[in-house]
Design brief:
Strand content: 5-15%
CATH topology: Rossmann fold
Number of helices: 10
Number of strands: 5
Helix content: 40-55%
Radius of gyration: 16 Å
Shape: globular
Strand order of the largest sheet: 2-1-3-4-5
CATH architecture: 3-Layer(aba) Sandwich
Length: 201
């Protein structure tokens, strides 16, 4: 979700396939990294940023639309609200803060997996199931991460628009699990998004 997917405000075409847990984990594990790539991951994750994150009691990994888009701006609202919390001390982070570039595409999944493990809470700000970030959704179902995940799902005024944004026949049951349960809440506008963020512990 951090990898700069298309905004929810743009005109979408066909939804991307969302991999299930096994497909995504197998995909991550099947990538054979070179010694240089292993060193690149160490360099990215052994710096001051990750060391600072580990000192906080609450560590929020905020995922969602990236790039220069209205959806990305709304994601940053959630990021800022969580990062400002002080009781207990909290910090928010995003995948792109660790210096990954498009040239590091083979490393994105591995780094995202590691950051999910470090987080105490994973917060997904979702406005659609389109764009280049959808593969990350599969990892949120991994047993070791599932209980950490909170979903802030944008709601739309018409059922037709709701279906257009979220319908994905390739992973219908997968999506249903993500969007239901006590840790999934809906929001309609920015004011509502701010209010719903307060429900995240």
């Amino acid at each position: 979700m951090d990898s700069g997917g298309r905004s929810g405000d743009e005109d979408e075409g066909e939804g991307s396939q969302i991999p299930d847990e096994d497909e995504l984990m197998n995909g991550i594990e099947s990538i054979s990294l070179t010694p240089t790539e292993h060193q690149r991951i160490k360099d990215l994750l052994n710096g001051d940023r990750l060391n600072r994150i580990k000192r906080f009691d609450r560590r929020y990994l905020v995922v969602g639309a990236g790039g220069d888009s209205a959806a990305a701006e709304r994601r940053m609202i959630v990021y800022d609200l969580l990062d400002e919390r002080g009781d207990p001390p909290a910090i928010a982070t995003r995948l792109e803060e660790f210096g990954l570039t498009p040239d590091d595409i083979r490393l994105w999944g591995r780094v995202f997996d590691i950051l999910c493990g470090e987080a105490t809470h994973i917060v997904a700000v979702i406005e659609d199931f389109d764009g280049g970030y959808v593969w990350e959704l599969g990892l949120l179902f991994a047993p070791e991460y599932r209980q950490k995940v909170w979903v802030l799902k944008r709601a739309y005024e018409s059922e037709e628009e709701e279906r257009r944004r979220y319908e994905n026949g390739m992973a219908a049951s997968h999506i249903k699990l993500l969007l239901t349960g006590e840790q999934s809440v809906e929001w309609w506008d920015v004011e509502d998004l701010r209010a719903m963020t307060t429900r995240i512990p």
